[in-house]
UniProtKB/TrEMBL annotation, chain B:
The chain crosses the membrane at residues 399-423, 444-462, 536-558, 570-589, 642-664, 758-781. This is V-type proton ATPase subunit a. It comes from Portunus trituberculatus (Swimming crab). It comes from the Eukaryota. Keywords: Coiled coil, Hydrogen ion transport, Ion transport, Membrane, Transmembrane, Transmembrane helix, Transport. Belongs to the V-ATPase 116 kDa subunit family. Its main location: membrane. One of its GO terms (biological process) is vacuolar acidification. It is a multi-pass membrane protein. Pfam families: V_ATPase_I (PF01496). One of its GO terms (cellular component) is vacuolar proton-transporting V-type ATPase, V0 domain.
Amino acid sequence: MKICGPKCSLCCTLLSAWGIVQLGIMAVLFWVKSPAFIEDLSIPEEAHHDAGHFIDALDKSYKTIAQNCGIAAGMYVITLIISGWQVMVNKRS
Amino acid sequence: MGSIFRSEEMALCQLFLSSEAAYNCVSEIGEVGLVQFRDLNPDVNAFQRKFVHEVRRCDEMDRKLRYLEKEILKDKLQIIDTGENPAAPQPREMIDLEATFEKLENELREVNANAETLKKNSLELTELKHVLATTQLFFQGRDSEPNSSITQNLLPAEEGKGPVQLGFVCDVTNRERMPMFERMLWRVCRGNVFVRQSEVQQPLEDPVTREEVFKTVFIIFFQGEQLKTKVKKICEGCRTTMYPCPESAQERKEMGQGVEGRLADLRTVLNQTTDHRHRVLAAAAKHLRTWFIKVKKMKAIYHTLNMLNLDVTNKCLIAECWIPTVDMGSIRAALRKGTERAGSSVQPIINQMLTNQMPPTFHRTNKFTAGFQNLIDSYGIATYREVNPALYTTTTFPFLFAVMFGDAGHATIMLLFSAWMVLRERQLIAAKMSGEIWNIFFGGRYILLLMSLFSFYTGVIYNDIFSKSFNIFGSSWHIGDNANATEHNLQAWGELTLNPYYRDLYSGEPYPFGFDPIWQIAVNKIAFQNSYKMKISIIIGVFHMIFGIMVSLINHLFFRRFWNIVCEFLPQLIFLVSLFGYLCFMVFYKWVSFGSGEEFDIQHNSDCAPSVLIYFINMVLLKKDKPTGHCDVWMYDNQFTIQLILLVVALLCVPIMLIPKPFIARRQHNQRMRQLAVSRQLLETQGAGTSASSHEEEFEFSEVFIEQAIHTIEFVLGCVSHTASYLRLWALSLAHGQLSEVLWNMVMKIGLQQASTVGCVMLYLIFSFWAVLTVSILVLMEGLSAFLHTLRLHWVEFQSKFYKGEGYAFAPLTFKNIINGDEEEAA
């Protein structure tokens, strides 16, 4: 039942909590196309030559990254549950 | 009046205690913890002091308690900490305590010795059991009849010689010794013995060392008496244990059964012994902490009593001690309580003495200010009653840290950690966690809390949260017509330049609070931030140093050193203000009068903005630049004249700092000597004895002059070097910002720029990697670095303007450390 010790499970819990908060906020910000993250987008080389294509690639990249952040946040929720359970197990033993 | 602004006023008092009440009075004083006793018998050897026997007895009791503690911990019992504070026991109770400890110790030693013997016996019996089992295996195939001798069938009978008789010995030894033993046997007996060995599968517990060892059973076969002696000697020499093994199988079986029975009995007895020991230890563990505290308090009281003097009548003890004057009342109350408890009728007397000695420095701190006071005291204890820098450090320290650390994200991490420590401090103190690093962090929790709050503020000002900026109010920069941002131009240039002159590019209204968020995507972000951060570093530095000089004025007024105000404070202040204060003025003037846009005329536009540093250098070198283009040479009218006047004034301050003070000091010294001589003559004519305490002060003029010269040079050069030293505020904040950006771009961006689906897993992993690096590098390492640099700025740049730090700490007799369970220093 015990996967990791008390220190490891506490670290994972804190990390997951931080991950959920930060990735959640980032997902929202990417969804509303915040210009602060404009340098984090991945725009393919071909789209650089035409303005219309560029804007389309921009929107697509924003949406993809927003989805990725959201799913990663969801994965961190699972990690939080698992490591929270580990913390309980360690406290009991 | 006590406060953290200045150290407490101390009084040297004489305490007269009656012999019966002395112990109890010192005990009560120790509980209050505000009296520092002076050692009145410094020349007396430790072994010749009055209470040396009692101290020795206390040491014995301490040793017994430590032995008990070790045994309790060995059995993994918990020592209960009820948090109660038992009073120091009366001297007559010491005998009872000693008897209790003696009994416990003896009982424990007896139990331990018994257990050891039992374990040794058990080990021997177990080995014997294994020997019997192994020999059974060896001879199994050979015995056709149970009663025939084993040795008979081993060798075929040679013709004419009759059956050969072989002897054998059974031994047990450690597995590691086996090869060495075999080789020695082979060499000594010249190969004429036969060894068979078998390893014991399970490890056996060694009674002495309590660890598990693997053993081997072996049988040595030999022929003849000489070999038998040799083999026996080698076995003894190699410290193997020999066991008698009967030859017939029947006898072996009987012996085996006997051994089993005895082993079972032994095991029962051993269990009962361990149970008994456990019960004894559990009973002791309940009281152990109370006993420890009582014994430690007794020892402390007797050490203190050793410092007192016995007066002529042998009926009372005299003590000299330093007491804060505001606490006289509580000390008197403690003394009364002690006398009552001792049942003595003689009231103790406190008598305040006048003295020239420098009293100890006592800062009354609470849990918040204690951390900052520790930082200051690490550099040097404040001189008696000079201004305590710790008061200001509570704010300036977190602020300067924040200027170097400014990142709202990292500040949030630090804030969560320090807030947890502060809110949970009662539980964390009770948990008594060990570990030096944890104690350092926990001791500084209030410092960390303040640092993180201030860092959040500067993070918002630098608009930096994990290297990204927030746009709350809307940026003041836009892409307007004047940017010429056509598709063709963008492809040709690659970069777009927004000129703030045009109001459709820059709105003219700056971002209300902090840096404009546009800067995080600007290529020239660092150049812009450098200019700002360097200037504010110099401004903060100059103001910090001016503040330090002002504090020295407070010190001069308090100590009535009025000549110092004229000869040190004023010239120092004027020097600093006229040179570096003027530098700050120029920075502010430039910020206000120069700008970009149509509101500023052509001489005050961005292409005519002068370099403040060049002006400063030219001021000192008295240089006049040549006019270039349409720009003015000077920022304002008569600038050259004003600068010249300021320079002359500053230079004039140097001889004022250097020359008058030694002469004044000499004159004051001569006046004092004359007054002393006059008063001594008066006393002699009146027939009274000469006063004891005054001692001749030497006044070496050359020494004082050189010292003053050193101070002057230190200050003048220090002004320049310390002002430049404050630029570390800029350097560290730049480094922090860049590290944060690099970490994001090199680590997090890879996670974000993934294609879909697989991207989430990568992002999931990379985020945790990024988070670990953020905490370890940016929060811990950079935090430590900024802490260190802030500390240096306080210790060197700020405190050198006013702090003498020549005092010694107040070390009262207090039982607080004993109750907290801290390690006590030997008195």
